[in-house]
Amino acid sequence: MHVLLLGGTGSIGSAILEELLSHQHQVTALARSDKAAEHLRAKGAEPLPGDLTRPAEWAGAVTGVDAVIQAAAAFDTDMGAIDKSVLEAIAAAASGRDVPLRVLYTGGCWLFGETGNRVADESMPFDPLPSFAWMVENWEWLRKAPGIAPILIHPAMVYDEAGGVLHRYLDAASQGVTIEIWGSADVRWPLVHRMDLASAYRLALEKGIPGESYCVAAESGVPTGALADAIKKRAGSLAPHMILPVAEAVARHGAWAAGPALQQRMRSRKIKRELGWGPRHTDAVALLGSRPPIDQGSFGRQ
Length: 302
Description:
Distance between the termini: 23 Å
Shape: globular
Mean pLDDT: 93
Strand order of the largest sheet: 3-2-1-4-5-6-10
Strand content: 15-25%
Radius of gyration: 19 Å
Largest sheet: 7 strands, parallel
Number of helices: 10
Order of helices and strands: EHEHEEHEHEEHEEHEEHEHHH
Low-confidence stretches: 294-302
């Protein structure tokens, strides 16, 4: 398939890019700068000059592709509006197609809110953090857009040996300073390695059913304290971790900081059963406690 990838230079997007190319898909990727274009070209993708905030300038490219993967976000105060304008521009450009445009949209585990002892899956109603409610609204809009065959991916907390969602922990441990855990060391995170997540996007691209959503978690819930301990062990850090109250974390870092403090569990029975997804990384504590850190660049939907 010929895929337009948004966010191909971020940690998640670059993993998707590698996965698609390794399975003989053709990838055109949005490039905001000459440096990004050079990087994408070196990886084997065709760069498409453009900025996420000005989708009218590049959205016409969807007339020449089979699918779009939206794995890009800046998570600033305007992100909901920017994301909506991207979807609207893509839908407008796809309106004259004979075959609906396949669009993979990225949600996330935070859209289910606090799950406690329940295990979230695709049947659980949304209860998003207020700062991420725009994702639910934009997905509902995309589901009804004419000329679009949408699929929703819900990644768990995404990590790799370089950190990903754990980058704050790794940075602190490498410097021998205190790891700051928001909320409680008993808070559980559903986890998925970035490369396993990339394979889920690829399978959804190839075999996913339009209108459906897929939760992607290799581990349903891992205590943040156990993750911090594993990272400290690898770094040889003796500094104890500290608990920062959620309200203080939000005051210091912004509304999104409530996300890592959510007590959550999530499972992936549907994508395993229907699309044959099987993660290779199923023990983050063991992986993070034994592997030296590697440099994977930036992290996030970028």
